[in-house]
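Re: Re: ligand-bound prediction request (bumping)

Still looking for help on this. To restate: I need the protein modeled with manganese (II) ion bound, output as structure tokens. Inputs repeated here so nobody has to scroll up.
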Amino acid sequence: MKITLNEAAEKLKSVEKILVTAHINPDGDALGSTLAMYQALKQLGKSAQIYIDDVMPANLNFLPHIEEIKRPTENEKFDADLILVIDTAPDRIGKVENLTNAPILNIDHHITNKNFENDIYIDSNAAASCEIIFEICKELGVKITKEIATCLYTGIATDTGFFNYSNTTPKTFRIAAELVENGVEPNYISEQVERRKLEDVKIMSAALQTMEIYFGGKVAGLFIDEEVSKIAENTEGLVDLIRVIDTVDVAFVLKYKDENNIRASLRSKSANVSEIAKKLGGGGHIRAAGCTFNTNFEDAKNILLKTLGEYFA
Ligand SMILES: [Mn+2]
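Reply:
Sorry for the wait, this slipped through. Here it is.
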């Protein structure tokens, strides 16, 4: 059931032990929003623990308290009054869903989130879940410390491509300004987030070699197949390298994650890639979306291109 921001805040006030989680393959917004909420709950005297069923991306290990995030082990249980699922519907939290049967509170900004079985606060105009968490902190009377502000700013900066994407609103800047007033150093955060290992830059060069152009230049894709994926640990930001091509509307990266687990990330300048991703069982935002194929790499490539072809051919 959809609830208001105030009702979500009241729910959090009414419980003592909260399990906080976000989606697998966590990004700056997933980690920034869970870490900010975690600190906010502790400030309110609550007991809280973050669980995320994945490894942490190396370029985000500067986030305050990231080392306190746990990954669930097989058959592990966690006693909680509430699971707070942020930045995704509860179907992308991996093994975290087995930790407890506690009721779910869902907070998200993805327009494709159709989880109405649980209490959900959704604001699809928010550029990042971190914008919503900022507002909940205000509602809860939480003091925005420098550490909380750093987490929130990182989520907003990463989900907006450092205030470049079309989801950036006047409100985004107002919240960011207040976070800077609370101690955030934007240059430090951009240096940390954009930091790459030499290996990763070599991967960028290898990944760019796989580029293919389709539909008269309107679509560009990179193909991180099983072979390339062995060296390509971090594919963050690859899609932005080809999105800049002047003729390109849709840029995508197709990545081998596992056998029959092929992930596509799509970005666009004007096409609604959320619609395209939805056709393929995925979701996301109008200009940034993704989907997973439970097929081999070649089939995933063919299905994706066929679907893109319906828009561009
Ligand atoms: Mn997000």
